[in-house]
Structure formats: C-alpha cells, structure tokens
Design goal:
binds adenosine-5'-diphosphate; 22 strands; 57% helix; 24 helices; alpha+beta
Length: 846
C-alpha cells in the first residue's frame, strides 16, 4: 500500500466518521426535541382527557344529587360523593399539565366554577335532607345550577379548544422537526455511507490488488523457492546474522543438513563451527556490500572427505541496504578428480610408454617413426629427434628388411593382424643390435592409421645362445678334464676327463666321484667335499685312480654353483699334473743347490764388502798423508815463490790447491760414510730443538754469506736418535737447502715437525731449484750428483750419509720436489716411548 493511498483512505474514513458523528449529535438533539414535543402533545391529550373527565365527574355528581333529591335515599349519593372526592384531584392534575400562565388562569376560573357547582349541589342535598324535596326542587328549578353547569361547559370547551389548537400546533411542529431530522439524518447518513462505500470500494480494489500482488509474489516466491531448491548448485541465502533464509536441496544434501525446513533459520556458523577464517572474512565483506569469488578452494566436510569447490559471495539489498548475502558454492571435486584422473592416466600412459622396459613406437604406414620411447632410443642409440626424422627401413639391417616389409604389406592388406620377428637394427654407431619385433596395426575408419611396434633387445639372448654354443665347444674340446656333478655323482664329463681316467664318456655318467680316489684317500676326499660346501670354490691337488688301477696326480679346481637352495652342482676342472709334479721335483732339487750356492755367495760378498769398507777406510785414511803433503807444497809454492811464477803457473798452483781441498772433502766424506757403517751406535732421546740449533751454528758462515732466511718451528719434539749422526744428517740437509738455490734467489729454509702416532717427521723445506721426480731416488746413492762441481760444489756423498745415518737410527728419509718449486726433504725418526728418559734409554737399532 502506498502512502497516498493510505492518506486517501484515512481522509475518507475521517470525513465519513465526522459526518456520522455530527449526524448522531444532530439526531440526538432533534430526538430530544421531538421527545419534548411529544410530551407536550401527550400533555395536551391528557389535559383534554382530564377536562372531559372533570365534566363527566360533574355530570356524575349532578346525577347522584338528582337521584337523592328524588328518592331521598342516601345510596343515590354515592356517585356524587365519588365525583366530589376525585374532582379536586382532577383539577390538580390539570394544573400540573397546564403550564402557561394563561392556562393557569383558565384552570383557576374552571376550578371556581366547579366549586360553585359543587356548592350548589351540596346546598340542594342539604336542603333535601333538612327540608324535603320541594325546597330542594325549587333551588333546582331556579336554574342556577344549570347556568353554573353551562359556564363550566363553556369554560371546559374554551380550555379544550385552546388545548386542541396548541395540540395541533405542537403536532405540526413535531411533524416538521421530525421530517427535518429525518431528512438531515438520511442525508448525512447517505453521504457517510457513500463515503464509506467509496472507502470500502477503494479498500476492496486495494485488497484485490494486494491479493493479486500477493498471489504474484507468492507464485514468484514459490518459483524462486523451487528454483533455489532444485538448483544444481549449492545455493544459500543468509540474513545479516548469517541465518539461512533460503537454501538449495543440493546444499542440504552435500553438507548433510537434514532438510531444507530444518536448516532455515539456523546459523551458518553454528552448523559449521570450523569454517576457514578466510571464508568468514569473505562473508563479512559480502555484508559490507562487496562481492567475493574464488575459482578453486577446498573444504573438509563433516565426514572428513575433502571437497574441492568454487564459491561466490554476493550481497543482497533492500532499499539500498545490505540485508544479507547469497552464497553460491559449486562442488568441483568430481571435476578435479576427473582432471586428476585424466592427468594421472595421461601420465601413466606416458610413463608406461616412456619407462617401459621394452622399446615401444608408433610407426606410420610409410614406415616413418611417429612416436618413440626412451628404451627404443637406448636400444638403437639415436635421440628421439633423430629417430623421428627416419623410417624403420632406414635402420633395418638390409638382410632383414625384405622379410619385415613383406609382413607390413600383409598387415596393410588385412591378411594378418599381427606379426613378430627377430631382426637386426643398425645402431647410430653403425653396430648391429638384435631385436625381437612385435607389430600390430591401429585402424581408424577402416584405414590404417599407425603401427604399434614393440621392440625388445635380444642381443643378450643372442649372445647367450652364441656363448652357450661356445661353452659346449669348450666343454667338448677342452684339453683338460671337465666334469659336472650333482652331489657326489657325475652328471657330465668331457672326453678329456674320461680319457685321462681311461673310460668312455658314457661309462662315467652317474658314477660316484669317490670311485676316482684310492681307498686310502677317501677320508681326504670327504674332507675336501666338506670344505667345498663352506668355501664354494677350492683348488686342490690329489691323486686319481684310472680304470686300470694306476694313479696319477691331478689338480682339481672345483666350483659349487648354487642355482636354487636345493640344486647345487659342481663344476670340476681336472688337470693332469704328472708333468708338473716331475718338474717340481727336479726344481726342488735345483733350488736346494741354488740356495746353498746363494748363501755361500752371500757370505763371500759380506766378506768382500767388509774388506772393501776397510779398504776404503784405510785408503781414505792413507790418502790423507800424501794429500797433506800436496797441499803443503802447493801452499809453500804460493807463499814462497809467487813472485817467481807467472800467472799461468800461479793458476795451476791454485787448481792444485783447490783440487786438494776437494779431494780432502771427498776423503772426509768417504770416511764419515764408512764410519757410519762401521760404528756401533746407541740411540737415546734427543731434543730436536737442540740438534737443529747445533746444525745451524755449524752452517753459520754459509747462512751469513747468502743471507739465508731460516724459519724453525718452535717446540720441536724429542726423538730416539744418535746425537752426532743426527747433527750430521741435519747439517747435510740444511746445507743442501742453502746450496741448491739459484744464484739470484735469497735462500729460505723452513724446518718443522709433523707428529705421527709412533714417529716424527722432520721436514726441511727450501725454495731452491728443485729435483726432477725421476732423480729423486738416485741422489741418495754415493757420488750421485745432478750438477757439475763448477755449478754447485760437492762430493755427491752428503745424501748417502743422510740415508745411511737415518737407516742406522731406525728411521727413513725421502724427498718431495719438482723442478723450479723447491724441495721438501723429510726424515722420520721414532718418538721417545712414554716412560723413557734421556738417561735410562739406550736402544740399539736392529
Ligand atoms: P753434494 O755434495 O752434491 O751436495 P749430495 O749427496 O748432498 O751431494 O746431493 C746429491 C745431489 O742431490 C746434489 O748434487 C744435488 O744435485 C741434489 N740435491 C741435494 N739436495 C738438494 C736440494 N736441496 N735441492 C736441489 N738439489 C739437491
């Protein structure tokens, strides 16, 4: 209902009601007036009646008086008395009815007349009683009574006349008022009724319209409800408090909510207390008038299953104000599952195709490769891209092509459904590979579409077949005996095996192995079998019996092959070692002779060695005396005859002196070296810090001259050694480190120790010229030098002394070097055992 309509209705009703009210007031007043008039009218009627009654009473009184006058009997006075008694009351009533002063006067006049009449009557009655009839009749006949009576009649008629006039006037007034009242009432009522009718009509029309609208609305609502109910999506309408206003059956079913009726009015958040926070936010945003949607989301249903869904939140409005939200949810789980199943099946197909253990290919009817898997590429050594450029004819070995093409032709002609063949492909690297090919044809609309080829690499089998033949040949033609036994029974033997034992092959099949052993060897044979069970392979020399009872030595090489738990068999290689045994015996003889000779020679050599060492020592020792003389004379010549000698002679003498110095050094070194071999040495704990310090003091001059940078690591450990030999070793090593440095380079020497569990490595590292790896061993031998004396002076014995000295102290020596990158010499010496001290330990090296 619109406002204007309501106003119209209100105005209409107001006017109608006001008019009815006015009408009621006017009518009430008119009716009051009418009632007043009506009372006056009835008063008039009553007054007339009362006048008539008074007259009648007077007549009755006159009648009673005459009866008494005539009869003299008292009983005739009864009417007279009644009338007298009532007439006064009659007059009083008239007085009350007659209200106007004029009427009051007339009534008074009447009352007087009546009084006169009554007095006249009483007088006559008294006269009758007292004087008899005649005097009474005289009074009557005087007509006075009659005159009074006529006056009374006239007075009553006048009053009646006046009363009737008044009555007719009043009746007229009443009639007029009544008509006017009726008219006004009718008019106002009719107007009000018309107005009410109009209002009712309007209301009726409005009601009709409202009902139509309601009907339309209801129909629409029902249609909408049906639409929502049967919508194939989850659809729900909520109010601002997220209570269900409408919901689709799908929603109710999916979320197990019972029925639409039971869901309506419920709170969404009470039904789903575990809704994700971002959904609640989306609802709130919807309630602020925003639309939200999500193409893919997921939700765990109350029964725990995961649902994939697509949702949309839309606000709904009334008069521009958000009243709630609409929620559309589409269950896309099935779609997702189909997608994922499709993806999976596609992946499975690809995986099956690509990861198959056999080659698989789709081949066009013309032979070109359409699709190939990884295995096929592996088999034939082409990449997929390369292969897709080729046809199967291109890579089929020419000898096998015709057979294949023949099959293809038959298949295309529909004569065969499938074929399989073994053939060779030419691999990418030109080698051949045997494959087993199985082909079927896929047709679409009856037309050949492509072949499905399954390609299996059978090279190994082909090889195995070839190998098997080879093994058979080896078995058959082997020059040594070969047998296969299961348990202790021979299953197969080769001709050599049979021949060596003097049997035919057939005779030995099923023969117990123990039969080949002489009875006294049976025990051994059983032991061998037991060992074999453990070791699975053994080589064993024994004696075998021939068929004729003779024996021969054999070497058995037996391997147990366990194919399955209960089916072990043995491969026996049997070698006739008669010849070897004979040779061995001869060799043993000659060995014995040889060993004897060697020990004799060794003793001789040791003797010679010792003689040589003592010879070296004595020679060196003895050479010193003439050398001293040479040096002395050379010095004398230089000192005493220098003025007499020319320059050439001078240079000769210098050469002699230098050679003598060199020779002296050589002799000293040789003596040191041979002394090292000869001396009995004892080892004791030696502090390396101290030893290195002494060595540096001895090399002081060289260090100064070449301005050597020496770095010694602090806290060097204590080792088991011989002090003076160790000093000699370190002097030689540091001396070489200073000496074998390029002239332009300032020598740098680093000395440090490296601790190992039982020994110490002392490293002497230099920045010298380095040593080529091929020379690193020989420089430790006597007289081995890598340079001329002019380049780097020396005798070539220093490192030999180092090696001999270290060996005598139970240690080792070595070098790491390369030309141009310095040398790193190391010596390894035993550490001091934990409980020993300098004083108590004296160890002799072995
Ligand atoms: P020499 O008397 O020549 O020093 P050694 O026996 O001490 O004899 O050394 C033998 C040879 O080893 C040397 O002549 C030299 O060629 C080489 N040599 C030894 N030590 C070094 C080193 N630190 N750097 C380079 N070469 C070396």
């Amino acid at each position: 209902m619109t406002r204007s309509f309501v106003r119209q209705i209100n105005v209409g009703l107001g006017v109608a009601l006001s008019m009815l009210l006015l009408n009621a007031v006017i009518s009430y007043r008119n009716i009051l007036k009418l009632i007043g008039d009506e009372r006056l009218v009835s008063q008039s009627y009553q007054a007339i009646a009362e006048l008539e009654a008074s007259l009648s009473l007077l007549k009755d009184a006159e009648t009673g008086q005459r009866g008494y006058l005539l009869t003299g009997k008292e009983r005739y006075l009864e009417p007279y008395k009644n009338s007298v008694a009532r007439i006064n009351q009659q007059i009083q009533t008239l007085r009350q009815l007659q209200v106007s002063p004029n009427q009051q006067k007339q009534i008074q006049a009447l009352e007087r007349l009546i009084g006169q009449k009554l007095a006249e009557l009483d007088q006559t009655i008294q006269v009758r009683r007292t004087r008899g009839l005649n005097p009474a009749l005289q009074i009557v006949q005087s007509d006075r009574g009659k005159q009074i009576m006529d006056n009374i009649r006239r007075q009553i008629a006048a009053i009646e006349q006046q009363e009737k006039q008044q009555l007719s006037q009043r009746l007229e007034d009443t009639q007029r008022k009544f008509s006017s009242t009726l008219f006004t009432f009718t008019l106002v009522t009719a107007t009000s009724l018309v107005l009410l009718g109009l209002v009712a009509l309007t209301l009726w029309q409005n009601e009709v319209q409202r009902r139509q609208a309601e009907q339309t609305l209801k129909e629409r609502e029902e249609r909408l409800q049906l639409f929502v109910e049967y919508a194939p999506v989850c659809l729900a309408m909520f109010d601002r408090n997220m209570r269900y206003l409408a919901v689709s059956q799908r929603w109710v079913d999916v979320y197990h909510l019972g029925s639409i009726e039971s869901t309506l009015g419920q709170s969404h958040y009470e039904l789903f207390p575990n809704l994700p926070e971002h959904w609640r936010q989306a609802h709130q945003q919807g309630l602020t008038g925003q639309s939200k949607k999500c193409e893919e989301d997921h939700f765990f249903l109350p029964d725990g299953t995961e649902q994939y869904l697509q949702w949309e939140v839309q606000p709904w409005f009334n008069d521009g104000i958000v009243q709630g939200i609409l929620l559309f949810v589409e269950d896309i789980t099935a779609r997702k599952m189909i997608e994922s199943a499709l993806r999976e099946s596609d992946q499975q197909f690809k995986a099956t195709f690509n990861q198959a253990a056999v080659g698989i290919a789709h081949v066009a009817p013309d032979g070109s490769w359409l699709r190939v898997n990884e295995k096929l590429c592996q088999i034939i050594g082409y990449t997929e891209e390369e292969l897709l450029q080729l046809t199967f004819q291109d890579i089929t070995y020419p000898d096998d092509l015709d057979k294949d093409l023949n099959y293809v032709r038959q298949m295309l002609a529909g004569e065969i459904q499938t074929y399989a063949m073994e053939k060779r492909y030419i691999r990418q690297n030109s080698s051949l590979v045997w494959i087993n090919l199985t082909v079927s044809l896929v047709r679409g609309d009856e037309q050949p579409e492509y072949f499905i080829s399954v390609i299996e690499d059978v090279s190994d089998r082909k090889l195995a077949e070839a190998d098997l033949q080879q093994y058979k040949d080896i078995f058959q033609f082997a020059e040594h005996g070969l047998a296969i036994s299961r348990g202790a029974i021979l299953e197969q033997v080769n001709p050599t095996f049979a021949q060596l034992h003097g049997y035919a092959v057939e005779e030995l099949i099923g023969c117990p192995i123990l039969d080949f052993y002489p009875p006294e060897m049976h025990e051994d044979a059983i032991q061998v079998v037991q060992q074999l069970d453990q070791a699975k392979h053994l080589t064993h020399e024994t004696i075998h019996l021939r068929k004729d009872g003779s024996v021969f030595p054999v070497l058995l090489d037996i391997t147990v092959v366990q194919e399955e738990p209960d089916s072990a068999y043995r491969i026996v290689n049997l070698f006739d070692i008669t010849e070897r045994k004979q040779t061995e015996t001869a060799l043993q003889q000659s060995n014995l002779t040889l060993e004897r000779r060697v020990s004799e020679r060794t003793a001789q050599l040791q003797e010679i060695n010792q003689e040589l060492e003592s010879f070296t020592y004595s020679v060196s020792h003895d050479l010193r005396a003439p050398l001293r003389i040479m040096q002395g004379f050379a010095q004398a010549l230089q000192e005493d005859y220098s003025t007499q000698l020319d320059d050439i002679a001078q240079s000769y003498i210098e050469s002699i002196a230098a050679s003598a110095v060199q020779m002296d050094q050589l002799i000293n070194d040789l003596l040191s070296y041979s002394r090292l071999s000869r001396t009995q040495i004892e080892l004791s704990p030696i502090d390396l810090n101290h030893v290195v310090e002494i060595a540096l003091q001895q090399l002081e001059t060289e260090i100064q001259e070449r301005q050597v940078i020496v770095a010694i690591a602090p806290n060097l450990p204590t080792v088991m050694a011989h002090r003076s030999i160790l000093v000699q070793v370190i002097v030689n090593l540091i001396g070489n480190a200073i000496k074998f440095v390029a002239p332009s380079v300032r020598p740098q020497v680093l000395v440090f120790a490296q601790m190992e569990p039982n020994q110490v490595y002392l490293w002497i590292v230099d920045n010298g010229i380095g040593i080529a790896p091929e020379h690193q061993k020989r420089i430790f031998r006597v007289f081995e030098r890598l340079h001329g004396v002019d380049t780097y002076p020396g005798t070539g014995i220093g490192l030999a002394i180092v090696q001999k000295g270290i060996e005598r102290m139970g240690g080792q020596v070595g070098v790491e070097s390369e030309i141009g990158s310095g040398s790193r010499f190391w010596i390894a010496l035993p550490l001091v055992p934990p409980a020993t001290t300098d004083s108590e330990t004296r160890i002799s090296p072995a």
